[in-house]
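Thread: "does anyone have the structure for this chain?"

Original post by V.I.:
We have the sequence but no experimental structure in hand. Need at least a predicted one for the grant figures.
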Amino acid sequence: MELQPPFRKIIHVDMDAYYASVAELDNPELKGKAIAVGGGGDRGVVSAASYEARKFGVKSAMSNVLAKQKCPHIIFVKSDFARYKELSAQIREIFFEYTDLVEPLSLDEAYLDVTQNKKNNPSANEIAREIRQKIFEKTGLRASAGISINKFIAKVASDINKPNGQKTIHPEEVIQFLEELPVNKFYGVGKVTAAKMYNLGIFVGNDLKKRSLEALTQLFGKSGAHYYNIVRGIHKSEVKPNRIRKSVGAERTFRENISSEIYMLEKLDDIADEIEKRMNKSNAKGKTITLKIKYSDFTQQTRSKTVGHFISKKKEFFPIVKELLYQEKLENSVRLLGLSFSNLNNNRTAPIWVQLQFDF
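Reply from O.Q.:
Generated one for you, tokens below.
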């Protein structure tokens, strides 16, 4: 089966080891060294790692203790979200020189639809190269890019020639590319799903393609239809320039496990202040408040409550937080607490950028 035109021209731009690269940019002595960005001390968690650290198996969400075991000479640096946002804004200014159809996924990656673009350049590959060069000239940071006919393939392609490279999957190459692509490289297929596919004899896209829509739906639920389509090059999701976050929240990892509910309320009070600030700044309100609890054994629990009207003020939602905390007895001592709002008034809010918080 051949895909039929017209084809869109989608670029996925992904900054290379963004947080670690910003640390190197601001402190040249770190250049070329194994560094990890995140909470300090043994209680911390790695939020990003340089490519030098990744060679030793260090990756995001890994505990600092394990990162040190894998890479004894690793250097830990604190996060600087103000700086990340500052540079991200500069990078987006470059995107908008080419198109208004820009969909940020995070501070360090975005989709661009350049089918029709401000430069009247018919080559998406050339546009991606120009953008990457301008990013380097303006910020000193490197970016990689993937270019293809839809968002799914563009995102997969952006990983192929990382770091500081790009990959174009032309329309006539799409089907063969997807048929030969290992299923664990399909964006959205995690370790658990990949393992399930392997057990079913599904190792590459062509194996997936042999399964009927009914069979895939039976095996993978709603995701089955998604897999059925993407392996055939069908992904109709448009680049959404006004992409809205579905939730806003903050969480805090503690240096030491805590078991006192009074102390937990003090920490939740601080987190609630941060959420109120973010919600008010973006004129956002929500109906569902969720308490996240991660215990010392790394098991996790969430407790939620939905109210009948939109709220954003701490004085409105903090009584609910207390109620959720005391809802049932805690199973163990606690290493992390988090709060989040969902069920937002999305039709009136701008994108909300939320980052993890850590105790140092």
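V.I.: this helps a lot. The first helix runs from residue 18 to 26.
O.Q.: and The CA atoms of residues 153 and 169 lie 8 Å apart.
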